[in-house]
Structures
1.
Amino acid sequence: MARINAKEDAKKKIIAAALDIAAEHGWDAVTLDAIAQNIGVTKPALYSYFENREALLRDVLFEVFRNIRSELETTLADDDDIHHIIRNLAELLFEKQKFYANLFFQLPFRLIQDPRNREEFAIIFDKSRSVIRDCLARAKSREKLPRDVDPDEAACIIIAMTMGLQFGSPSMGMDVNAEKKIWIRTVERFLLIGLK
């Protein structure tokens, strides 16, 4: 079997393999054995990078968050039209990032609730919220949003609604297009109320 060399490259390769396995078979299929087989190393070799499956899943979740935040930054970098901003954000959250959103909601909830991880997750999550908040603040400064819209509060509501739709839509029988339409209408109404 091939030997993994550079530690950072190896960790990235292992995380990518875990993401591939999760995307194809779900998180229950993400085992150290499956990853070792996927990348062509022995299972004991993986232990030099991750002490156990929980540690690996934690790093995978961080990678999911980093990818989402990076895409948010790119998507919301600049646009003068609030309607375009909303639609671009919807496209990102419900189409481009659907893979990562699905993985996020499949991850064991205990990882996020673990006190050792909670603070780090909160920091990463807050950075993503800040990207949305800053975009809304720029739109507000250009008078594209009503004065009474609080960008920070709006960013929190947008994230909560997004998570709720993505988490609940499978049990409500909604597809991505239905989720996206509901999301766009609701966000536009929330942000643009009172705007002429």
2.
Amino acid sequence: MSALSNSVPTSQADKQMLLELLRESRERFLSSFVGVSDEQSRKRPAEGCWSVLDTVEHLTAAETVMLRLLQSDRRPRAAGAPNREQGFLERMGSRARKVESPEGGRPKGRFPNLEAAAKQFETARAGVVRFVEEANEDLRATEVTHPHPLVGDVSAYEMVIIIAKHAERHALQIEEIRKNLVNG
């Protein structure tokens, strides 16, 4: 990545902001299913809806893939590429608009239980945190080589925001599932 080595590293303040987003969304996501039993985690509130376990599996699978994209070769960001950080911060965590998961992120029974899925999520999230902590390049000046399925090409910095906000979005989904199961 010699073309990337000439850039100024991401500032400590920016890294701290990303790390705080990752920490907060990790806690929010994990707390969204505290107290859910293995049996409850498999219940779906309605036909065609995901269970808590399905949702945790989806997020874990997606975060694992996004971590791999961050860790793989990145390319220099095109001059004039849009900066969508603020928009991602404001909208990515929202459940106002339903979005269908790409095939690779759909639940397929990858985990025997909620505990195993949560453990894998924590492993993937620790990898994202480590990536940010160890980054010695400008994460805004590089982009991942595989476009995000919903928003296209993103900088490494934007990808970290997406990862954090994706967890928040699914924490809200789990809260909705739990509410629907109690009221349903």
